[in-house]
Amino acid sequence: MVDALADLEERLGYRFADRSLLVHALRHRSWCSEHPGHESNERLEFLGDAVLGWVVADVVYRRHQGSREGRLTDLRKSVVNALALADVARSLGVGPCLLLGRGEAAADGGAKPSILSDALEAVIGAVYLDGGTEAAHDLVVRLLGDLLDRDGDVSPYTDFKTMLQEVSARLFEMSPVYVLSEDGPDHAKQFAAVVIVNGSELGRGEGTTKKQAEQLAAREAMSRLGSTAAPAGRDA
């Protein structure tokens, strides 16, 4: 475990003065339920989420001087979400370092986006406590800075479902409806989603998970809605 933590610190580009904070950030609640007396990473995740939001807001504000509030919000959402954070955590090798309960480990919990993204936020919170605001700011920029340099193209982590939900509520005062179907054996399921907005089918998507299929359907719907999807004051 000591070697694994040292390797993770190397990949993070940060050495902890108090390495117990890093261990704390890697303790999932399923492990803690089997080891009474140890606190899970949930409080650190809460702190890290707040630190992450502050740093990303600071970076996009400074890097995108000509962008309005709406565009800055879109940039922040494209990074501060479970998919983006899980990918970063995966690239850092956080999964194998996680302390998971037996059931969660057997279910490959170290590969779950929700667990990975929560753990990364907890690590950010741990760095903030260990090294202060400058260390935490530097870490977030080092890990996510490239994703925040986008200027006009769509991030692969854009949450199209949330965007479509907001647009549908504004334009039609109703929520999109997703119709899901699945095909294939249990070990190789394929999902298809159709999204209906204001009574019309606006998008279709297919993927290996329900969430992926719905995101792709929502993306097509947003494309079809075109310029009507942009609220006043938002950059084109």
Structural commentary:
There is one protein chain. By secondary structure, the protein is mainly alpha-helical. The protein has 2 domains: about 1-150, Orthogonal Bundle (Ribonuclease iii, N-terminal Endonuclease Domain, Chain A), CATH 1.10.1520; about 160-230, Double Stranded RNA Binding Domain (2-Layer Sandwich). It is built from 10 helices and 3 strands, in the order H-H-H-H-H-H-H-H-H-E-E-E-H. It has helices at about 1-10, 20-25, 30-35, 40-65, 70-80, 80-90, 100-105, 115-145, 160-170, 210-225, and strands at about 175-185, 190-195, 200-205. It has a 3-stranded antiparallel beta sheet with strand order 1-2-3, with helices on one face. A hairpin with a 2-residue loop joins strand 2 and strand 3. The chain is globular, with a radius of gyration of 20 Å. The N and C termini lie far apart (about 50 Å). The model is unreliable at about 230-235 (pLDDT under 50).
